[in-house]
Write a structure and sequence with these properties.
homodimer; alpha/beta; 2 domains; 17 strands; 29% helix; globular
Chain lengths: 358, 358
């Protein structure tokens, strides 16, 4: 059976002041009427019903996740006691699935991406699952670059597809960490490079076998999870998890594993990594100027701005290319193109001890 | 005896979103801890006690004014049923004072200016009152221009003082309406031109005599106010006031009256006509960049900004020379130097029917 693991461990800095430590991006309604994690579950459901969906999240977010997703069984919401990047989290999820279905196929999907159409997304995953089951290989999904992005890792594929047909799969030649702009520009000239979407498909058996080889400390540390009685899992994790190395599955496993396959996404994809990236998903604001907004907005001689409000009216007069975000207790103003630097504001709040705004 | 009339009829557009129709600038705490009207009364009190202070205000603001100024007798808070500019308002105030003290000297002062030191302000007024009483002339106070402002009227005075001594008084040669920039630049080159402060000193008798000549329709319309029983004043005004012409005392009387005197202000003065003008009165914001703020603020690589918040944190990242104002229900963002255009936002709100934000 296909199980899905939704990775919902985001820290909620990039969408401050809307996102906070306890309500990171995946728990927000920033695109459409649903939270991103609800949208992710809905999108999957025709392929993987909630009874086979697992959510890996930070302990302090688990109650909110459970409240949003009552259809996902409570024991499938896995709380990480501390963040240890993606490798320990995915090993843990694989072991959790192995407890109930050792022959499962496993999809690993981020909770906070914007994807459409959902049917094409599911078709891609279905094909990946079939290939993973048939070949025993690890499969990942590459996104055709829309530009020389420096915020994503890249995947270099072989020249000829290993599997042909309506959907092609290539051997992965190399995983490339986030490049600088000059390198990104070179990469996107060749069709052999795609963005690393962070979506993976494999059988639990193949993944755990590869993890035993490349992530031995993590597998060794977490192995008892597979056989412990359910009532002891929580205390086991609280004891063991903080001691695990913090490493990404990309760096710790995918770059080292042999025979990894990649296929192209036949759906549109955006990880919406910042307020700037959100602009493309917001409706046009009333009036001229090409502003985009959600929430109450009034512009006069304002152009190219992104306005997002959970309540207060945002009134922009004579400004260009700004990001303005207003919540009940905080307002952010920064130029378009610099919204990732909101991390500096969050860092400043931490330094100033303004924990109520974090 | 000296009576003072404080003109508190502002409409509250220039400091939106802080100011609203029912809480215009004079009812706000934008400079210091007191509302501007409270500061005006305090500043006057050693010269004119609250028992001789009169407030002329819009009907819908009168309750708020009364609540802020319990020391001013309720019958001395004059409610204008509708706004008719300054001439009807000052004639009305003169008649109200004449009811109780026909030989009074009368100071006419705006409610929303920033003035210091208060002692020097009172000294100036005291001298003006003495001259007005001695000569029977209308007296006004000119402000030495700090630059070629186009937002004020100008007063041209004669070459030689009419009254010399520690404080000089000149004949007014001409009142000049708000000039364009080229003309303002020429005017400020000569010491004979000062800004028109909108502050006037005269005896009630001299003013009413001049008003009979230059504002006959207004005096005729309002004359019964002087002798009506107190209980009938309200209904009289509601009937008569809306029919009066809307005209300023500058245009309707001062420009036409003979023998008007002007003296220079020996105090610092600012009418704080916009968010931009407020910057000089706000404390420096924490951190580098020369930002100024009131309320919660956090800047990172922000410079030259003015931030004013009644509650929400204003976080500015990578922006220059912006005015940002945050209240519980609205946020304004505009460039420094353009804050007067907030009127366009207010107009837009009216058009959009968002009356809760007006």
């Amino acid at each position: 059976m296909i199980h899905a693991v939704i990775m919902a461990g985001g820290k909620g800095e990039r969408f401050w002041p809307l996102s906070r430590e306890k309500t990171p991006k995946q728990l927000l309604r920033i695109v459409g009427a649903k939270t991103m994690i609800e949208a992710t579950v809905s999108r999957l459901s025709p392929l993987v019903p909630p009874s086979r969906i697992w959510i890996a999240t930070a302990g302090d977010q688990a109650p909110a996740v459970g409240a949003l997703l009552p259809e996902v069984p409570g024991e499938q919401i896995i709380s990480e006691p501390v963040g240890r990047n993606t490798a320990p989290c995915i090993v843990l999820a694989a072991l959790a699935i192995a407890r109930v279905d050792p022959s499962a196929t496993m999809l690993v999907l981020p909770a906070d991406h914007v994807i459409s159409p959902a049917s094409e997304f599911r078709n891609t995953l279905r094909s990946c699952a079939a290939v993973a089951e048939k070949t025993g290989r690890l499969v990942t999904i590459g996104i055709s670059p829309r530009g020389p992005a420096t915020g994503y890792g890249y995947i270099k594929r072989g020249i000829k597809p290993v599997i042909s047909g309506p959907r092609q799969f290539w051997q992965v030649e190399r995983f490339i960490e986030k490049p600088d702009l000059a390198r990104a520009r070179r990469l996107v000239r060749s069709p052999r490079y795609t963005w690393n979407s962070g979506m993976f498909v494999w059988t639990v058996a193949a993944f755990l076998s590869s993890a035993e080889e490349h992530l031995p400390a993590i597998v060794k540390g977490l192995a008892p999870y597979r056989n412990l009685p359910a009532r002891r899992l929580g205390s086991f994790l609280r004891e063991v998890y903080p001691r695990l190395p913090s490493v990404s599955v990309d760096y710790g496993l995918m770059e080292k594993a042999r025979g990894v396959l990649v296929t192209g996404a036949s759906f549109s994809w955006d990880d919406v990594g910042s307020w700037d990236a959100l602009a493309a998903h917001l409706p046009a604001a009333p009036g001229p100027g090409g502003n985009r907004c959600r929430g109450s907005f009034l512009g006069h001689d304002a152009a190219g701005c992104l306005s997002f409000s959970t309540g207060p009216l945002v009134a922009l007069e004579g400004v260009r290319d700004l990001v303005v975000v207003a919540t009940g207790d905080a307002v952010l103003v920064c130029p378009r193109g610099r919204s990732q630097e909101v991390r500096e504001i969050v860092a400043g709040l931490k330094k100033a001890g303004k924990t109520d705004l974090l």
